[in-house]
Amino acid sequence: MYYSLAGMLFMMLGVYFALLVNFVTSVFWVWVAMDLSTIFLVPFLCCGMSLTGMYQWYKGSATYFVVQFMGSASVLYSGLLLWEPSFGGMGLMFLATGFILKLGLFPLHFWVPRAFVNFHYPGIYLTGVIQKFILILAMPFAEADMAEHVNELMVLSAVASVLYGPIAMFNCTNIKTFLSYSSVNNTGLLVICLSVSKSVFMFYAVCYSMSMLFLVLILSFCMSDTIKQMGATLPNFYFSGFLFMSLSFAGFPPLTDFCAKFVVVASCAEYLMWFCVMAVLASSVINLLVWIWFSVMIIRAMPVEDSFEPTFEDLITNFGCILWNVAGGMVLMLFY
């Protein structure tokens, strides 16, 4: 219990300093806030909030710690270069590279699967969803006075991530590795959303965070390493919630994630960002095939009968998953 409370405290401090990044105006203080956020999140990722009995999180935390500090060092070095106007272009490049590395965008995504496979599910949700939202809002290309070529570099990295993520998901048998490449894909989508407007970004961020929350809750119950093991341990009771979640991530209308991606495509088309439109559409087709394959693998491994008796929390989770994807999607279609 002591480690659980300590972990929660460190988690809240990490999120607090990550939020602080969006309110500072100096590159130096951006670096300070990001480093403090990393320092306080590492104990949360390593603490005794054990859900599996394994202690592989230390390997993931070490990878996460080193990469995040490399990204922060790049941001700090960019601040030093920006002091000298003649090195302004190079400084902006280091600033963009630092954020691309910290967010795990292609081609600097190499650390994401290595870290995720050793994290617990709360750590995956925090580092792969919550913290990325905050860091994306602090990205330099959101500022109007940034150099055009830096903006293009970050958008290009986001587009590559949108296309690469679902392709890499096809080669995954480990669930956490599967989630890591899904995170790369959706991080790219979030960066594209921010390049359009903050309102589109916030809309997609809310939809994605809620969908991932329900998926992580279901996966936390199974506590399996591989997709086949998840199918063997997933109770029949959770099948309906999991099925609607998979169909939503696959992009079937009128479910919530279909509506979210439709808004992204429509917004990019409105701003004549046709390259992004084609990338998101191609990514959606690949995602459709990936999630159908994922669902079929789970269904084939599920037991015919099980003796699982759902608790009240299980009922709420499963019903909430169905309600979020079905009713949420219909409501979004009515208002868009």
Describe the 3D structure.
The chain is mostly helical and 336 residues long. It contains 14 helices and no strands. The termini are far apart. About 2% of the residues have low confidence. It is found in: Mitochondrion inner membrane. This is NADH-ubiquinone oxidoreductase chain 2. Its EC number is 7.1.1.2.
- CA-atom Rg in angstroms: 20 Å
Described by strand count, sense and barrel closure, the largest sheet is: none
Which parts are unreliable, with pLDDT below 50 for 5 consecutive residues or more? 48-54
Structure classification: mainly alpha
Shape estimate = globular
Mean pLDDT, all residues: 81
Helix content estimate: over 70%
Strand fraction band? under 5%
Q: How many domain regions?
A: 1
- Taken in chain order, the helices and strands follow as HHHHHHHHHHHHHH
Distance between the termini: 46 Å
- What is the tally of beta strands? 0
Mind sketching the topology for me?
Layout: H1 2-20, H2 27-46, H3 57-82, H4 88-103, H5 111-116, H6 121-137, H7 148-169, H8 175-196, H9 198-222, H10 227-233, H11 239-250, H12 256-270, H13 274-301, H14 312-335
Helix pairs in contact: 1-2, 2-3, 3-4, 4-7, 6-8, 6-9, 7-8, 7-13, 8-9, 9-12, 9-14, 10-13, 11-13, 11-14, 12-13, 12-14
Question: Can you tag this structure with a few keywords?
Answer:
336 residues, mainly alpha
Give a brief rundown of this model:
The chain is 77% helix and 0% strand. The chain is built from 14 helices and no strands.
